[in-house]
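fold-stage: in
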Amino acid sequence: MHEPILSVRGLTKTYRGGTRALDAVDLDIRKGEIFALLGPNGAGKTTLIGAVCGLVRPTAGTITAFGQDLASNWRSARARIGLVPQELSTDMFETVWRAVAYSRGLFGKPSDPARLEEILKSLSLWDRKDAQIRALSGGMKRRVLIAKALAHDPELLFLDEPTAGVDVELRKGMWEQIAALKQRGVTIILTTHYIQEAEEMADRVGIIQRGRIRMVDEKRAMMERLGTTEAVIDLAQPMTAIPASLGAYALELADGGRRLIYRGGNGEGKGRAAVAQLAQQLTRDGITFTSLDIHDSSLEDIFVGLLGAQGEPA
């Protein structure tokens, strides 16, 4: 197992007044992965990012990045980390080019106009390079934040709600940019309210709630273990009771006996296989049905279910 690019141990942040934003968080991030950190508002996502990026001073715990303790090697490690913040915090009267060039110089990188041109073109900002940031749309401003974060070629990139307030078309364009960054070897930690983003892109998913990491797993493994399949079967003739021959399936009758509902298995195969066997059994029993609709759990279904089980709405 390779040494993680980022390792957090016992990270705690208690604010004056007693609010505990992070509660003994342990987390390892693997080099080259896209890691999605999910949680409701106030769960601690932004505080965790702020602690790694030097914006929040932890109350306790250690952070190791690139094999270096951030407490004693903060400047050299921070120069290898990029952050796209949630808030649109930049000089609105600055031009796109100057803002991005300044960010590169801020981390001690030599001037490289060709590299900045490459970054701006990749984000469809090149034709707006001389525009003041205040003149850009919300989506374009967010792209400028990404360009600024990429200007010093970070190896570890934090994206805190990168597509908040961005329309669907721009959001998909940013997903493509994130995938391209991964191809270049950049490790990406993403927080998002759009759980579809995590489902689309993440290799692993972590769920944080009330400052604690509740679960970390491979996205596919999480969906296989916690996902379910639901099948709704509309019957040609209503039933008064479920026949004994169907007793092995997790079934319930609905809509006055005109509908059978199956819930079970998981969303990656077992549930669908059970539904296929159920359909064959119905046919053998001479029970005709007019439609069969199958739905597999999404990552969002799992996320909402987990937080609901913990007693907190998503």
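fold-stage: in (second)
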Amino acid sequence: MTSSRTRVSKAVIPAAGLGTRFLPATKATPKEMLPVVDKPAIQYVVEEAVSAGLSDVLMITGRNKRPLEDHFDRNYELEEALTRKGDESRLARVRESSDLATMHYVRQGDPKGLGHAVLCAEPHVGDQPFAVLLGDDLIDPRDPLLSRMISVQEQYGGSVVALMEVDPESIHLYGSAAIAPTADPDVVRVTDLVEKPTTDKAPSFYAVIGRYVLDPAVFETLKKTQPGRGGEIQLTDALRELALRDDDGGPVHGVVFTGRRYDTGDRGDYLRAIVRLACEREDLGPDFRTWLREYVAEEMQE
């Protein structure tokens, strides 16, 4: 069983990446601050953690990430200006991000991979199980994936990853899991993991997406994990070792997710996420859908 049965209460969000796929927009702006409709992508991720009951959030940052800290801090000058104008609606939206959670920050320093970023959280997390949320994956709030993962971790112990079936031609972009069924239809036992395999080497087409609930034993495992693919310390490699254990931090289970996920790490998917979320907004959706239908009809005629 697991080395800890403590309730998950802390979330870790790695946010030290350079965002090179979005250059030049990310030359001076962290990719996590790129807007998805009218909120930065990172705010959706923090809101997801809070909705799952995790109000203690540690963000792993790097150089040029100060805007992340500023966004979740108070802006007294702006708040005062909005107060003088009597603009209560915008004032509430400004304060929303600073009132979300208790935020903490630590710099990763050397960019040694996701596994190293997670290892940077050890002093804050200690010997408790914790959640890791990657900012490139936005999970629709109507599909409470993280809450389900926390309940699975409480039931089975060990660590839990989020899995999603992907097109075989896309599996090389993800970690791929070998799986075995459990008594729960949406839960599988992970028996092996391969980081970014070719299609013919993938143990399955169930991909690990950016949500994890980790046993603290992962820290000692990461310390022993040698750099893997890309010369980085891969979280997948550490989880593979834990998956082979029945105790001392193991096993690893997966929650098979079939809900709505928006990938903001790819430019095309980022744009599609904005369109989908804008269409579903009560304040923006009706007018935006009308315009979108007219635009598509015009494009079809050309």
